[in-house]
Design goal:
By secondary structure, the chain is α/β, with parallel strands linked by helices. The protein has one domain: L-arginine/glycine Amidinotransferase, Chain A (5-stranded Propeller). The chain contains 10 helices and 17 strands. The strands form 6 sheets. A 3-stranded mixed sheet has the order 2-1-17. Strands 3-4-5 form a 3-stranded mixed sheet, with no helix packed on it. The longest helix has 21 residues. About 5% of the residues have low confidence.
Length: about 300
């Protein structure tokens, strides 16, 4: 199994705004009172387009799907939470915590990928769990080490343990389960998505070990990464707040590897961390300030990797 792909699916927003339904447990979202909704959406579109251009300039194959005004889906820019694509031609569809995010799931996107020559053999649909109040938000809830058949999951209201284990059994991943926290007004609160505090790449991993309060769990996660001969690059909780954990390794032209992140994440890194990363990959960053503030997600959340085989 490959860890990185050259093919990415992205959804261009039409009515992007802060989603009040996700703000209850995504503490990275902020209200920008000074901007009108139209301005917020226009800024998000500008950031999106500039980001896509940067990816395409280095040879990443980006499939763009335009969001629709109806139904109302303010978070559609983050497709990796409701769908994932796998090498055997499998597609997984996930149960979402926020009711208005469930409307993001669109079958026409599968038709579009098939029109592009991708092969879809089976759809694994976990969405029924929503009815019972259980959620697993795709590669937000899980960080996949596809090469080593491991899946990392920080449990939270959006990342249910039993569902995660079911996914791991279906896709033959070894589950690595822990809890990750952030400090909010002096209190330790569960981080809503694993992919804001860690990123697993081919030859290295970026992680905020300080988010894992339980020492045994912390050691288990770090041992797991190092056991797979990955260089572990540690980031701080302050850097997590700048979305330095929300990064994704992709392949550009000539199989060249890039670590994709936001400008805020890039700026938060120390010279030493940048040097460590650049031993492995080229850094590609783009400004996502509006998307990060209103959406509470960053570069990684915007990209659904397409690992499907091609005709």
């Amino acid at each position: 199994m490959k860890q990185t792909t050259n093919s990415i699916l992205m959804i261009r927003p039409v009515a992007f705004r802060m989603n009040e339904q996700t703000a209850v447990n995504n503490y990275y979202q902020k209200v920008i009172d000074t901007l009108s909704p139209a301005t917020v959406n226009a800024k998000a579109q500008e950031e999106f387009d500039a980001f896509v251009n940067k990816l395409r300039m280095v040879g990443v194959d980006v499939t763009i799907v335009n969001d629709t005004l109806q139904p109302d889906t303010p978070d559609s820019i983050f497709p990796n939470n409701w769908i994932s694509f796998h090498e055997e031609g499998d597609v997984a569809m996930y149960p979402m915590f926020a009711e208005n995010r469930r409307k993001e799931r669109r079958e026409d996107i599968l038709d579009l990928l098939e029109d592009k020559g991708f092969i879809i053999n089976e759809i694994m649909d976990y969405t029924e769990a929503e009815e019972d109040g259980y959620f697993l938000e795709g590669t937000g809830s899980m960080v996949l080490d596809r090469e080593n058949d491991k899946a990392y999951c920080a449990l939270s209201p959006r990342s249910d343990e039993e569902l995660f284990i079911e996914f791991c059994e279906d896709f033959e991943y070894t589950p690595v389960i822990f809890e990750a926290f952030q400090t909010i007004n002096g209190e330790r609160k569960l981080i809503y998505h694993t992919n804001v505090m860690m990123s697993v790449c081919e030859t290295f991993a970026i992680i905020c070990a300080d988010c894992i309060d339980d020492k045994k769990e912390r050691k288990m996660v770090l041992d797991s990464l190092r056991g797979d001969e990955k260089e572990v690059i540690l980031i701080t909780e302050d850097q997590v707040n700048c979305f330095a954990g929300n990064m994704l390794e992709v392949k550009g032209a000539d199989e060249r590897r890039y670590l994709v992140m936001s400008t805020a994440a890039h700026k938060s890194l120390t010279k030493k961390q940048i040097a460590q990363i650049e031993e492995h990959v080229t850094i590609l960053s783009s400004s996502l300030d509006t998307i990060e503030a209103c959406g509470g997600g960053s570069a990684r959340c915007m990209m659904a990797e397409v690992f499907l085989p091609k005709e």
